[in-house]
Amino acid sequence: MKKLKSYQYERYALLCKASYPEEFDHTEFGFAVAGRRDVKDASGRVSIRVLWGEKKEVVVVFRGSQSLPDWLINLAFMPVKRRFGACQYRVHWGYSRLLEQPSPPVIMDHEDVSEERVNPTMTVFNRLVEVLTPLIKQGKRVALTGHSSGGAMAVLAADRLERLYSGSVKRVVTFGQPGVGAWSFQKKYLLHQRTYRICCDLDIVTFMPPVPGLYWHVGKMLWLHNDKIYENVSEHFRLLKTLTSWLMMPITYHAMGKYIRRKDFFDRH
């Protein structure tokens, strides 16, 4: 499994942050002017941005929970059976629904309209595949990223896409992602060696859904805590170490390192 490089981490993190506001200038991130397509959810809001440029990589950014209905979908965590060809597994109903809800067509300023594009019965995932198919056929590979429920969507979409186009997924990077699949999904997931799940300190969402043993995470976990990166540590270790840090915090403030500041810190006073 290749390491996730710092510039890749920063790029995906910034794209995930930028996916929340309605205004989004993809050219600021180096993508081509015509290298963007949006995918909307059933309410007409942009939930996925597909971005590309001259490089052989397409970046798919999934927006996370932003409204009350978005947050409620996190609570619909009963496992549901899904089948793709000969493969069958159980996943989180709410996150699966985010990909299977109807999606209206989005016509960008630089595009021509075809009859297929105005089909009102297509799902969010169908729309995504519609955008990615010609890009994959051009030789581009796909990186998927998302924060919170957007990360959950990224994992589910990546596995489905890899089953449609083997070798098309370059990597999956999620931030603060909850669990998305039962043991059957964890066992059959195709992209363990290309998936990075970023967790930060005691982010409660990364422990969701709150039913031990019901859902299993996939890929490699990178836990950011106290300026260190821990790989694939257990949930119990994360909880214990974070609580210990909180208890020790008054003592650590006495350390000399806390008193050493940049020169310009005092120059401003």
Task: Give an account of the 3D structure.
The chain is α/β, with parallel strands linked by helices. It has a single domain, classed as Alpha/Beta hydrolase fold, catalytic domain (Rossmann fold, 3-Layer(aba) Sandwich), CATH 3.40.50.1820. Helix content is 32%, strand content 22%. It is built from eight helices and ten strands. It has an eight-stranded mixed β-sheet, sandwiched between helices. The longest helix is centred in the C-terminal third of the chain and has 18 residues. The termini are far apart. The model has no long low-confidence stretch (mean pLDDT 87).
Features:
Alpha/beta hydrolase; two-stranded antiparallel ribbon; Fungal_lipase-type; Rossmann fold; 8 helices; 10 strands; alpha/beta; hydrolase; 269 residues; AB_hydrolase_fold; hydrolase activity
Topology (SSEs and partners):
Blueprint: H1 6-18, E1 36-40, E2 46-52, E3 57-62, H2 68-73, E4 79-84, E5 87-92, H3 93-100, H4 124-137, E6 141-147, H5 149-164, E7 169-175, H6 183-188, E8 195-200, E9 220-225, E10 228-231, H7 235-252, H8 263-267
Parallel strand pairs: 3-6, 6-7, 7-8, 8-9
Antiparallel strand pairs: 1-2, 2-3, 4-5, 9-10
Helix pairs in contact: 3-5
In short:
It is built from eight helices and ten strands.
Order of helices and strands: HEEEHEEHHEHEHEEEHH
Taking the sheet with the most strands, its summary is: 8 strands, mixed
Unreliable runs = none
Indicate the mean pLDDT. Answer: 87
Overall CATH architecture: 3-Layer(aba) Sandwich
Task: Name the beta content range.
Answer: 15-25%
Our Rg estimate from Cα atoms comes to 20 Å
Number of separate domains: 1
CATH level 1 name: Alpha Beta
The N- and C-terminal alpha carbons lie at a distance of: 48 Å
Q: What's the CATH topology name?
A: Rossmann fold
CATH homologous superfamily grouping: Alpha/Beta hydrolase fold, catalytic domain
Order of adjacent strands in the largest pleated sheet: 1-2-3-6-7-8-9-10
Shape verdict = globular
Q: Percent of residues in helical segments?
A: 25-40%
Pfam family, one: Lipase_3
Domain Fungal lipase-type: 59-211
Keywords: Hydrolase
InterPro entries: AB_hydrolase_fold, Fungal_lipase-type, Sec_MonoDiacylglyc_Lipase
